[in-house]
Design a protein that fits this description.
The chain has a single domain, classed as Rossmann fold, CATH 3.40.50.360. The chain is built from 8 helices and 7 strands, in the order E-H-E-H-H-H-E-H-E-E-E-H-H-E-H. A hairpin with a 2-residue loop joins strand 4 and strand 5. The protein is globular, with a radius of gyration of 18 Å. The two termini are 13 Å apart.
Length: 208
């Protein structure tokens, strides 16, 4: 049975349209996959400090007790990623980019020698062979030409995932939540339909 890692990033507990969409995705896959849920809204990773950073560049067999403690969260998050066959990220846009909790997450899992390394041609991601689906939400409609230049969420996520080796990525946007109930409901419904279609395809592939 394949493993699915679902990462929620919205801190808007109880009211998040994003969390509704990731929950819908989990519902589509519930009987065919092992699902792990990581909620960064209710339990955000700690930001990196000097001890953790020093542990990143120190060989594991030389880690001090303080470094081991500081890297415990990073090691746990990386182990979840390594085990996942399918990655589902729910990314809420805050001030034109990702949430601080999701940024802290990527700071914890981008580890030289573990999730990426530098070769003769530059950085090479080590978490290969995974499929990622990124559900994005935003108050505005960043598909509009004049808004695209203000979207730092999508290009960052595409880059950081490729940086750690995840290149098969599909974005599922649900935009315009602040543009009136009709626009928000229409875009939400489009995202729901796409999630259901992907869930059906993934389940059928497992059953085949």
């Amino acid at each position: 049975m394949q493993n699915v890692l679902i990462i929620n990033s919205s801190p808007n507990i109880g009211f998040s349209k994003l969390t509704q969409l990731t929950a819908l995705f989990a519902e589509q896959l519930a009987t065919d996959f092992n699902i792990t849920l990581r909620d960064l809204g209710t339990n955000p990773p700690q930001h990196l400090d000097q001890v953790a950073l020093s542990g990143f560049v120190t060989p594991a067999d030389q880690h001090s007790d303080n470094q081991k403690a500081a890297l415990a969260v990073s090691n746990e998050l990386i182990a979840e990623l390594q085990a996942a066959d399918v990655l589902i990220i729910g990314s809420a846009m805050h001030n034109h980019s990702i949430t601080s909790g999701l940024k802290a997450y990527f700071d914890q899992v981008a580890r030289a020698g573990i999730t990426f390394e530098y070769g003769v041609n530059g950085p090479e991601g080590l978490l290969t062979g995974k499929q990622a689906y990124v559900i994005t939400t935003s108050g505005g409609d960043y598909s509009l030409d004049f808004m695209k230049k203000m979207d730092f969420q999508t290009p960052y996520l595409r880059h950081i995932l490729a940086f750690i080796g995840i290149n098969e990525v599909e974005f599922i946007p649900s935009q315009g939540s602040a543009m009136g109930p009709e626009v928000a409901a229409r875009n939400h419904a489009v995202a729901e339909a796409r999630i259901k279609a992907i869930g059906s395809t993934l389940s059928n592939n497992v059953a085949a």
